[in-house]
Design brief:
Layout lengths: L8 E7 L6 E5 L4 E7 L5 E7 L13 E7 L9 E7 L2 E6 L5 E8 L21 E6 H13 L18 E4 L8 E5 L5 H12 L1 E7 L6 E8 L11 E3 L5 E7 L8 E5 L9 E5 L10 E5 L6 H14 L5 E6 L16 E6 L2 E14 L5 E8 L2
Parallel strand pairs: 10-13, 14-20, 16-18
Antiparallel strand pairs: 1-2, 1-5, 3-4, 3-21, 4-8, 5-6, 7-8, 9-11, 12-13, 15-19, 16-17, 19-22, 20-21, 21-22
């Protein structure tokens, strides 16, 4: 039987937007909760009473860092676990008339959702890509739509207002060679669409040695490390409080009919089959790509859509911190681990992490596991 360890602690650090200097450090909030997700926007919600000092620091895109630490006999090492930018607030009252503010901080990945591929169709290496590695296309889309290169001087339809100094990282190697047209598409949605095709995860993280600057990092395979032989979550090991497994097959599609340019009998079509298709698992979907004329582009669009609609069995579980099973030390967001439920043992990726701290620093951690 495993031994439960002490609760871990948190700090919320608020940074100045212009010089990235710390403006305040807080550990006295009513509640701190945040959700981290692979390839999706995370969200932190800070609950504070009326008059709290953090309210005076709020402005659009003010950055927070949520740090966590485990107390031990010799030291207290704070580790950054979440970064986000202020976006919105909600004001609420309880039955006694006390006023509380709920402050919303989307994760740094939200930056990518602000931009589209604002280039006319048909512009090579800007809105149209032919026979190129997907990981390289990702970097070109980011560079010319989300950074200081996103200007009308360079040919973009408008000069983007760059929120942060955003740079591109090294592309993963061995990504598929595809052809794609992306004019007008949202940048974040494109990267999410391509992640399954490319077999990579991505995130926006701090640029080493350059405080306040960030870059888009590509991770080959998964965001974290394969710990499936060492980290096992099982009710019998007392590191799970409960678990729920969902197969996700009710929404699954396995055959794509992609409609390209033209009308009636003259319309161009491409047929694509997912790797999850079988005689007993044949579900069709129509994908409208009426602006496309190139067969390779139609095929790539169909493959991406099937990737989105592929069943991804998920497991939700509340976990207990215990010896060898400590979040942020033994396992991390994006890792591959083994999950045992009844007689089912599977390797899954930690796809999402929900962390919450109550006013007395009580901690609750929930994990969401998905197919790697």
């Amino acid at each position: 039987m495993s031994v439960k360890i002490k609760e871990f602690l948190y700090q919320v650090r608020v940074y100045n937007f212009t010089n990235n200097q710390i403006m305040g450090v807080y550990d006295d909030l009513v509640e701190v909760s945040y959700r981290k997700q692979c390839n999706k926007i995370g969200m932190a919600v800070l609950t504070v009473p009326e008059g709290h000092a953090i309210l005076d620091l709020l402005a659009d895109d003010v950055t927070i860092g949520i740090y966590i630490a485990y107390p031990n006999e010799t030291s207290l090492a704070w580790v950054l676990d979440y970064e986000g930018q202020y976006r919105d607030r909600q004001i609420t009252t309880d039955n006694d008339g006390n006023v509380y503010y709920l402050l919303f901080f989307p994760s740094m990945m939200e930056i990518l959702s602000r931009y589209i591929v604002a280039w006319p169709s048909g512009v090579t290496d800007r809105s149209d890509f032919s026979g190129q590695e997907l990981a390289e296309i990702v970097n070109l889309v980011i560079k010319y739509n989300c950074s200081t290169f996103a200007t009308t001087t360079n040919g973009r339809l408008r000069t983007a207002t760059v929120i942060r100094s955003l740079y591109i990282g090294y592309p993963v190697t061995g990504s598929p060679v595809i052809s794609y047209s992306v004019s007008g598409r949202n940048v974040l949605e494109l990267l999410q669409e391509w992640a399954s095709l490319c077999n990579f995860d991505f995130d926006i993280i701090g640029y080493p040695g350059r405080p306040g600057d960030y870059y888009v990092k590509q991770y080959s395979g998964q965001l974290g490390t394969d710990r499936s032989t060492d980290v096992v979550f099982d009710l019998a090991l007392d590191n799970l409080n409960g678990a729920n497994m969902l197969g996700d097959r009710l929404r699954e599609k396995t055959k794509a009919i992609v409609g390209g340019s033209g009308t009636g009998a003259a319309r161009t079509y491409a047929l694509r089959t997912g790797d999850n298709s079988s005689a007993t698992n044949e579900y069709e979907v129509f994908v409208d790509a009426s602006t496309e004329t190139v067969t390779a582009n139609l095929e790539a669009i169909g493959d991406a859509r099937l990737g989105e609609l592929k069943a991804t069995a998920k497991i939700n579980a509340s976990v207990v911190s215990s010896w060898r099973y400590v979040y942020g030390q033994s396992y991390f967001h994006g890792d591959l681990v083994t999950v045992q439920i009844g007689d089912v043992s599977v390797v899954r990726k930690i796809d999402a992490v929900d962390v919450s701290f109550s006013q007395n620093q009580h901690t609750d951690i929930r994990l969401e596991f998905a197919n790697p």
